[in-house]
Amino acid sequence: MFGHSHIPELRTVGRTLLLNPGSPTDKRRQPRYSYGIMTIADGRAEAELCYYDSKE
Known about the structure:
- By secondary structure, this protein is an all-beta fold.
- About 0% of the residues lie in helices and about 50% in strands.
C-alpha cells in the first residue's frame, strides 16, 4: 500500500500487489473520489478500489 499522489492504482507486479487508494477527501485531478479495501486472509492479500462522485 502506498499513497501521497492521490492517484488510485491497483495492480500486480510479479507476485506483489500494489494498492494506492487515491483519496476519499481530495480527488486532485481525478474524476472521482476513491478509497481502497484490502483483505488479508490465509496468507493471501486481495484488494479493490471503490469510487464515488460526491462527498455529500
